[in-house]
């Protein structure tokens, strides 16, 4: 074995090990035909330490925690920080399995993921962007219109059939608590569990055209709908599949194409299908809005109360503001998880 390893250049060996032990699951046949080192301008990350289970952890096979995230070059730095934060604060990090949804084969991304987290239990799945072709309507921010932003709608169709529950997380988060606590929430028969924000003005998420149409507005009759952020969700995948929720969300996207009823990307159709019918989770699991508003990304302060997850939803992303040397105060809470090798910030081992 030693002679085999020494005969192969280390960078090539790293990607080969990723292919062998981190298979890419796809329904459209991605093939790893080209193996190359990342371009010189592609971000390079430090290797994260190997995180091991505590003595109280059960078998990884019977106590598996499934987490889904998207994988995209533009948000890769955020994804790396999110993964590190989850593993670092987990009592049983070896029990955590990551399911990454990617819109295209980018060898540089797979290379970076493997070299940064060589011990990560993960799979990468191809999200066919043709599934949302013609269904996406222009929103108030271009980043919200990217096809991969809609991949969470199709998650249940993409991941293996034996995964019955999963946590979906955006790439602009860091977890500062044991993810097993979120995994263990009771859904009480609901399809989705997430923090609810009932003090928010729910009407602002839809246009006047929606509220003035009695047939559309009656969607929420008999319910008490509240805003929830789709960047942090615990999903009963079995119930999602059986209930045909992908189709239900898509149906509202079709309505949007014919009659503009909302302005915000993939969030409103989730609200139309599920608002008022989710299991509420403690707000500590989504301290959202740290990226500011969707247009200017102005700084925001933390909300009062305990925090388990920080979420830079909104226009401003912490890595961009830190690099510009115009960070918000909350961005310094993200910085310790930044594995970007060229960063001038210090990372404690």
UniProtKB/TrEMBL annotation:
Keywords: Glycoprotein, Glycosyltransferase, Membrane, Signal, Signal-anchor, Transferase, Transmembrane, Transmembrane helix. It is found in: Endomembrane system. It is a single-pass type II membrane protein. GO terms for cellular component: Golgi apparatus. Pfam families: Glyco_transf_8 (PF01501). Residues 1-29 form the signal peptide. Belongs to the glycosyltransferase 8 family. This is Hexosyltransferase.
